[in-house]
Amino acid sequence: MTCVDHNSKMKMYVTSIFFIIIGIIFTIIGMILVLTWPSLFDYILHNQLSLTPGSKTFKMWQKNPIPLYLDFYFYNWTNANELKNPNVKPNFEQIGPYRFKEEKFKVNITWNSNDTVSFKQQRYWYFVPEESNGALEDVITTINVVAVTAAFQTRYEGYFTQQGLSLTLSAIADLTVDRSISQLLFEGYEDPLINMAKTMENLQHLEIPPYDKFGWFYERNGTRDFDGVFNMGTGEEDPTDFGVLKNWNFNSRTRFYKNECSMVNGSAGEFWPINPEPTEITLFSNDLCRSITYEYEKNVSVEGLNGYKFTAGDKLMDNGTMYPENKCFCNGECVPSGSVNASACRYGAPAFVSFPHFYNADLSYTNKIEGMHPQKKKHSFYITLEPKTGIPLDVAARLQINILLQPFEHVALFRNVPKLFIPVLWFEQKARISPDMANDLKQLLSIPEIGCYVNWGMLSFGLLILLIVILNFYINYKSEDKAEKMISRWGQNGTHRQMIKTGELPTANGVKSASIYTE
């Protein structure tokens, strides 16, 4: 064998070893990534979504990144003067919407050592006249909430207390009031009963609102204190704690309900668990002072993204009839399924919350009044979550406030009134992921699939290199083995000496010139 052949063979061996090493590296890396990629992506996703100071998630959480609008619809009581006529049902005409743009901020933020963050909410509402169906100066007729609340709160007081209230109401109050939308919402209006209640010593044990006016959103615009103090898991250490409310107003239970109904649990509202199960999810509502359960309804598509649609339905509005565990939400006033007692959360006012137009409620609510037209598309309450990240894709929060009107024997103003629920207003807040944000989310969700192709590609490439090297070794080995057999066979009949002398050697493919002469 010449030096040239020896060097050529050594180069072949070195090259083969090099490609073997490359093939092994690609095979090992590809195999590891194929086995660990789902967990690795979840880890990356967890780091991206967890709430930490300075993170992208924090910036979006601190100030809502998408425009929010709150629509108010009011009910104008068109025949209030016929209330005590048993042959005439109260008729209510819906007016609105009155649209407000909402800006929401997280303030007084404190990062705690137990993987939680404490904060308050500050919200501002700005009227949007060009997108509203009406003006804030519109005047409607509605139930006198202050008078009804006074009678409701004193229903268990002594005879003389109720008689005193009866005389006062007969002198200064009516069953209804005529007020503007602005007064009923943020501006508020004065009522002599409010100031009188604060000065009457025999009523100080009752929960009297700390306000000088009445309005459903009076003194809420711009305040930091109304919504309370929240303590929420950041998910930095435990992904299952991401966005979960731990305490509200420094307690894990509220004082407004008893037993299990008093528990503070569920999402704080902005964040939801990663990989939510298509069963049910829970949200804590500070407006209702309780948790709300959404039940899985179906899979839907939002901006080209698959989503789990969860709907607030029977489990929210039931008072123990279908779900016995809900009975503790009654607070002593168990009414037919379809509305829940929120009086304890609203300073003792007989406020009951339902879906708009008593959607999905017992027929007893709508049989006694006129003007209700419930529709699922317009009045249901739902949230759609992306199944992998738990990011909300489409949200519609719709609730109606109703006042329980009932007769009180010792209060003349309410002595002969029928017992029924007076619809006052309902509000709607909708939010939907924008096309740009949906495209960003699609790119994020495509990473696992792209990574899967890349990982399998690396594994296949490594195995292919190893296969080629092995085949090359095999072919060379077979070629050399065949050549040796041919030389051995020809040597036996004396032919090889003649070929060697003439400078020729047998090969697997025939005869080639030899580089040296041997005997």
Instruction: Write the element-wise H/E pattern from the N-terminal end onward.
Output: HHEEEEHHEHHEEEEEHEEHHEEEHHEE
Continuous helix count: 11
Number of domains: 2
By DSSP, the count of extended strands is 17
Q: Your description of this structure?
A:
The chain is of the alpha+beta class and 519 residues long. It folds into 2 domains: 3-46 and 446-513; 67-433, no CATH class. The protein has 11 helices and 17 strands. The strands form 3 sheets. Strands 1, 2, 3, 6, 7, 8, 9, 10, 11, 12, 13, 14 and 15 form a 13-stranded antiparallel sheet that branches. Strands 4-5 form a two-stranded antiparallel sheet. Strands 16-17 form a two-stranded antiparallel ribbon. Helix 1 (3-49) packs antiparallel against helix 10. The two termini are 14 Å apart.
Quick structural summary:
With 519 residues, the chain is of the alpha+beta class. The protein has helices at 3-49, 56-62, 145-153, 159-172, 181-187, 192-199, 314-317, 363-366, 376-379, 435-492, 495-501, and strands at 68-77, 92-111, 116-127, 139-143, 176-180, 229-233, 245-248, 280-285, 290-302, 305-312, 339-341, 351-354, 381-385, 392-405, 420-432, 504-507, 510-513.
Q: What tags apply to this protein structure?
A:
519 residues; alpha+beta; 13-stranded antiparallel sheet; two-stranded antiparallel sheet; elongated
Give me the secondary-structure topology.
Layout: H1 3-49, H2 56-62, E1 68-77, E2 92-111, E3 116-127, E4 139-143, H3 145-153, H4 159-172, E5 176-180, H5 181-187, H6 192-199, E6 229-233, E7 245-248, E8 280-285, E9 290-302, E10 305-312, H7 314-317, E11 339-341, E12 351-354, H8 363-366, H9 376-379, E13 381-385, E14 392-405, E15 420-432, H10 435-492, H11 495-501, E16 504-507, E17 510-513
Antiparallel strand pairs: 1-2, 1-15, 2-3, 3-6, 4-5, 6-7, 8-9, 9-10, 10-13, 11-12, 12-14, 13-14, 14-15, 16-17
